[in-house]
Design goal:
By secondary structure, the chain is an alpha+beta fold. The protein contains 2 helices and 6 strands. The chain has a single domain, classed as Rossmann fold. The chain is 25% helix and 42% strand. The strands form 2 sheets. The protein has a 4-stranded mixed beta sheet. It is globular.
Length: 89
């Protein structure tokens, strides 16, 4: 998802459908990752930008960086984060 409306809708769906104190795990291309994947434009995130985007509804538990070697012998960098849904009153 690269379109702002798609991203907002995805996050709204997650907020509405994850149980209170539920867990969201999300992996995205990192800022060191490619600009395109399979010829398609992608959106890159860092731990900071991912956390900032979700902070109103999810608390960061942990993020890790993952290096994936493709069948074409290139490396793609990802950031994978785990978040806990914040309690709402």
């Amino acid at each position: 998802m690269t379109d702002e409306n798609e991203i907002s809708n995805y996050l709204k769906t997650a907020q509405q459908n994850i149980n209170p104190t539920g867990i969201l795990v999300i992996g995205t291309f990192s800022e060191q990752g490619p600009k395109k994947c399979s010829g398609i434009e992608i959106k890159q995130y860092s731990e900071t930008t991912r956390t900032e985007r979700l902070k109103k509804i999810f608390e960061k538990i942990r993020c890790i960086s993952v290096e994936h070697r493709t069948p074409f012998d290139t490396v793609q960098s990802f950031v994978v984060c785990r978040f806990r849904k914040l309690q709402t009153e």
